[in-house]
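To whoever is on call:

I kicked off a structure prediction for a single chain this morning and the downstream step that reads the tokens threw a length-mismatch warning. I double-checked the sequence; it's 366 residues and nothing unusual in it as far as I can see. Pasting both halves so you can look.
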Amino acid sequence: MGFKCGIVGLPNVGKSSLFNALIATAAAESANFPFTTIEPNVGRVGVKDPRLDTIVALAKSAKVTPTQLDVVDIAGLVKGASKGEGLGNRFLGNIREVEAVLHVLRCFEDENVTHVMGGVDPIRDADVVETELLLADLESLERRVEAGTKQARGGDKEAKAELQLMERVLAAVRAGRPARTVSVAEDEAKMFRGFQLLTAKPVLYVCNVEEAAAATGNAHSRAVAARAREIGAESVVVSARIEQEVAELADADERRSFLESVGLTESGLDRVVRAGHSLLGLITFFTSGPKEARAWTIPAGTTAAKAAGGIHTDFERGFIAAETIAYDDFVASGGEKGAKDAGRMRLEGRDYVVKDGDVLLFRFNV
């Protein structure tokens, strides 16, 4: 099951530097966190999860496979992208293909690095990108509403419901509010996703700060955090320069020592990847054994049968039950055998909603 986050931003904000550091760091850690370059501008990285390390140790697994996230370095945006300016059409097309947006904002002062807008102002930069996405959604919704109105006049109940939702979203977009801020009922969610709106995608602002502010942030990053809270987005602070230096260190102990020397307990890119995973509303379940321990990514609310199908379609088709151990019980009991002996393993049916951290073994017959 693949999930994509797209890195976007204006030119010269550190977008590609962060992506390249992500590639180098992931490649250096390939022994434990597999990395694959799918295309020149797409990287697949492992999402670090300490729980998986614990499960590996308890299960004495020979192989470990973390859950993964695809990160796409999308072409830089310029004002007028919604009308095709610069690489606008390619930019907008690439955003439609990702599930979440990692928006890199320049939050550092450096007279040696030219800013395309003439000066450092991350809120203005965020507005430029957001405006282009809103304009693209506005045009798309207006076309849809026009076509939907004609269908609704014919008495089609589904068309009427869809039109009502479109008009609510259109009103928000016209008011300058992203589509993701619109309250959508559970029975409207599928229709809403079908609109394929750019501003419906969850956003993580990545504040690229100077090295001295990597641990604490600065005034620019704090302003971005406030904006994120206002529009239902999230933010994280990183320093592209530090990430590039970390990426050049092949030894894990050296990376750890370097990070500690600048006041960090983990790489900023680790925080970005983990936040991107969280941003998508995903949870993780685990499978374990002597051959392999593995983390699996699924949307929150997924049933056991659907989770099994993410491993192999035969598992869902012939689903019988899921042997389920909560992560805390797995650890407290010293692993699978101890959990079973202590009565901490339970059998769950196909409609069981998988919980984050569940350790599962699927029984199936085909």
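Update from on-call: the warning came from a stale cache, not from the record. Cleared it. Sanity check on the structure: The longest helix spans residues 122-153.
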